[in-house]
Design goal:
Pfam families: BPD_transp_2. This is Branched-chain amino acid ABC transporter permease. One of its GO terms (molecular function) is branched-chain amino acid transmembrane transporter activity. The chain has helices at 3-25, 28-54, 61-75, 81-103, 108-134, 147-169, 172-182, 184-189, 194-220, 225-228, 231-244, 251-269, 274-288, 292-310; strands at residues 139-140, 222-223. It is an all-alpha fold and 312 residues long. Strands 1-2 form a two-stranded antiparallel sheet.
Length: 312
């Protein structure tokens, strides 16, 4: 192993230990801000796991996030916390497989519209059930989970999503997905089971989104469909992934950190116009950085050796 790789590994472990100790010395505001950063880092990275290599733009993030949150709202007081998370994982995976098998034959704009409609459909189903069956629209979340517990669980989830993304990128599944992203017809002619590959990765991505919703639920104490299935979450995740660069594993995290801080600032200073400003930010990113910050950095690296080679 090269010395540079050893140094990078030591730095990563030291950084992870420092992050794990943060709840012991951070005040309430900075702990809350760190939870928000980890939440969007995991969501954007999970979104990039599927949408990065396949180039399918999904707006279903809030559907899985909301399902995770409502699983905790319904079962949080009845079952042990690990069991509640396992049930959330099972529900998120089952929903992703059903949706994936029935819709991943779509592509382009049709897939985008369908995923947006899916999130709205799930939200309306929850509203219908709550209003007609339980006769209450919202639910209180009373579980013995502290802010520090939420932070540590999200940090563990962040490590897991990066580890699984790294393994997938070096597996046959990752190779197949890159071919699918280039040309699905060619992938089929190469003998790749396109449907299985897309559904498998869609389910893995959905599991992480569902777990984030479940872990974040105790933070609100009270949730209702408009909070758990807020469509703004889906758009914010897409903006973050596109800013950083969805074609690289760590690209969405690069976009998630600055934009989470920006959205935090906008919601505090301009609460009535923050959504409008977020829309403008989205347009600027799409036009100015189509490959994201990571793509810009990679092009700069490629041009430098070429320019040096041209010098007499």
């Amino acid at each position: 192993m090269r010395p540079a790789h050893i140094a990078a590994g030591i730095a990563a472990v030291a950084g992870l230990v420092a992050l794990a100790l943060l709840p012991l010395y951070a005040d309430a505001y900075h702990l809350s801000l760190s939870i928000g950063l980890l939440q969007f880092t995991v969501l954007a990275t999970a979104w990039g796991l599927f949408s990065g290599p396949t180039r399918y733009v999904s707006l279903a993030t809030t559907a899985f996030f909301g399902v995770g949150a409502y699983t905790v709202a319904v079962l949080g007081e009845l079952l042990a916390w690990p069991l509640v998370l396992l049930i959330a994982v099972a529900i998120g995976a089952l929903m992703a497989v059903i949706v994936g098998v029935s819709t991943l034959r779509l592509s382009g704009l049709h897939f985008v519209i369908f995923t947006f409609g899916l999130a709205e459909l799930v939200r309306q189903l929850v509203i219908w059930y709550e209003v007609n069956k339980t006769r209450v629209l919202g639910r209180y979340v009373f579980v013995d989970i502290t802010q520090s517990d939420i932070y540590w669980q999200l940090l563990g989830l962040a490590v897991a999503v990066f580890a699984i993304g790294w393994l997938i990128a070096r597996s046959r599944l990752g190779f197949a997905l890159r071919i699918i992203g280039e040309d699905e017809t060619v992938a089929r002619h190469c003998g790749i089971n396109v449907t299985f590959a897309k559904v498998a990765l869609f389910a893995i991505s959905a599991i992480f989104m569902t777990l984030v919703g479940a872990i974040m639920a105790p933070r609100w104490t009270y949730i209702e469909p408009s909070i758990a299935f807020n469509p703004t979450i889906s758009f914010e995740v897409v903006i973050m992934a596109l800013l950083g660069g969805a074609h690289r594993l760590w690209g969405p995290a690069v976009g998630a950190i600055p934009l989470t801080l920006l959205f935090e600032f906008l919601s505090a200073r301009f609460p009535s116009t923050s959504t409008l400003i977020i829309g403008i930010v989205f347009l600027l990113i799409v036009y100015a950085l189509p490959s994201g910050v990571v793509g810009l950095w990679e092009r700069a690296r490629w041009r430098r050796p070429a320019a040096q080679g041209e010098q007499p």
